[in-house]
Amino acid sequence: MVVNLTGFIGGEFTSSAFFDFDDFGKTVQKAQRLMDDMIDLEIEQIDKILAKIDSDPEPDYVKAIERDLWLKIKNSATLGRRTGLGITALGDAIASINLKYGSKDAVLFTEKVYKALAINAYRSSCNLAKERGSFPIHDHSKEKDHPFLDRIWNAAPDILQLSKKYGRRNIALTTTAPAGSVSTLTQTTSGIEPAFMLHYTRRKKILSDDEHARVDFVDNSGDKWEEYRVYHHGYKRWMDQLVVGEGETMSDEKLERLSPYSSATAKEIDWVAKVQMQAVAQKWVCHAISNTTNLPQDIGVNTVKDIYMTGWKTGCKGITIYREGCRDGVLISAEETSESIQVSAPKRPELLDADIHRVSIKDEDWTILVGLLDGRPYEVFGGLSEYVEIPRKYGDAQIRKRHRKTMPSKYDLSIGKNGDSFIVKDIVKVFDNPNYGAFTRTISLVLRHGVPNQYLVEQLQKDKNADLFSFSRVIARCLKKYIVDGTKVSNGVIECNCETAEERQIVYQEGCATCLTCGIAKCG
Q1: Measured between alpha carbons, how far is 499 from 203 in angstroms, rounded to an integer?
Q2: Are 134 and 169 in contact (CB under 8 A)?
Q3: Distance in angstroms (rounded) separating the CA atoms of residues 271 and 295
Q4: Using DSSP, how many helices (H) and how many strands (E) does the chain show?
Q5: CA 423 and chain centroid, separation
Q6: How many Å is the maximal CA-CA distance in the chain?
Q7: Neighbours of 270 (CB within 10 A)
Q8: What's the pTM?
Q9: What are the tens digits of pLDDT across the range 41-68?
Q10: How many CB atoms within 10 Å of residue 160?
């Protein structure tokens, strides 16, 4: 859970701007109570999972590993009641009171915020212990001379007295998460991070029948796009209250120089300031802090070493570095070659494991079977669901190949086990569409001969006017699930908000083409 710091700013971007620490403290105490309630809800859901495991028909020795895992999770949650309360929008809060992220004043403000977070969270946890009891393994005598707790107790002696008398409700309380998705919702900077960039150009595709749209860009495919500026929300609020002379105009560069965000975006702030900001926050945080230091591609090894060593010396629990362009290829060969290599398909065993996929497109239901060899797609069968009835409780099966000497082989689908099984014979014939059969045979041939999955998916999505486009989309949607996270996306698959090619870091995440820089994703 995170507390949005921009909610406690008074008179933002004015000379009298301030941060309301009293209101912040009260909110933190309420948030910690909610965090403790969430532990009870979590334990309740774990109990449901354990009950489901107990009721499953598999023998106990099969269920033992999963049951043991969830018992350990429940035990940890029950004995410690660990929470993770944090903040978001620190970058915007700093700018709102006219400070520059990374400056000495901003460092002091950051420590004051995190100190208030820790003190009020711990005060709330001790009061909760008075009402509900302390976490089961609490022993105040074992926490004697603990440097982190001593820091809190010295800053707020009342918490020490509460702890001695009642203990506290939670073994550890605070953290700082990346808060990327949450901050997209709140339209603020993320967690402890500065603003990523103040503005970027976004392209909107122009529909063919829109005669009045302004055409700013035409891509290699002939598609037309309209471009418009998108501003960081905090920066836009600053611009909205900016007073300029009548008839005066300002360039983006001049506006940036005048703003409190000037020279304080993720790419501009120096690593020393980033580590200092994290270090003063870490003094008051139980767990780790998510904070990324962005570095240019040509950064030297010694500088990287200095960053890690400085983080360690200043008490940071972790340091993350992102060097520009470092994720272009996760695995690359030692030597590149232009020589063409012919690949032979691995021999198919008689019996192959398969996943059953169900997809709906344009009010039509499809069933797709993906045969797997060593966990990778090897062959595909499919068609309209109306031709084959497979109960939804089944998500996997086996495909048996029946060799015939003078005629094409047939494939039978075996579903279920332990007395609850049935067989669908000759699944190609069952789907009753020669066009789909020829199409899936071609796809299977491509898969068997090692064409990377992402290239096949991208090709299947291109021909939008083809007769088999719906079926192509169905196959592509299923095969996407087997693309390894972090796989690079080909150019043109997705238009993101990054201004330059160097900024774009577009990879597949959970089957979606996602830009790691600006967060734009495409899953269709």
Answers
A1: 10
A2: yes
A3: 8
A4: 15, 18
A5: 40
A6: 89
A7: 11
A8: 0.64
A9: 999 999 999 999 999 999 999 999 999 9
A10: 18
From the centroid of its chain, how far is CA 181? 8
Distance (Å, whole) CA 3 – CA 113: 11
Reported as a single tens digit per residue, the pLDDT across 183-236 is: 888 999 999 999 988 888 777 788 777 777 788 877 777 778 888 788 899 999
Secondary structure element (H or E) that encloses residue 4, with its range: strand 2-4
Residue 523 DSSP SS3: coil
Distance CA 62, CA 405 (A): 41
Which tokens sit at 452? 């990377």
Report d(CA 100, CA 3) in Å as an integer.
21
Cα-trace Rg, the chain? 29
Domain residue ranges in the chain: 1-197+232-315, 351-481, 484-524
Which pairing describes strands 2-4 and 86-88: parallel, antiparallel, or unpaired?
parallel
Burial class (CB in 10 A: 0-12, 13-18, 19+), 194: buried
C-alpha 524/C-alpha 511 separation (Å) is: 9
Rounded Cα gap, residues 294 and 99, in angstroms: 21
CATH architecture entry for 1-197+232-315 = Alpha-Beta Barrel (3.20)
Distance CA 25, CA 31 (A): 10
CA 365, CA 220: separation in Å to the nearest integer? 34
Scanning 322-433, the segments in alpha helix (DSSP H) are 427-431
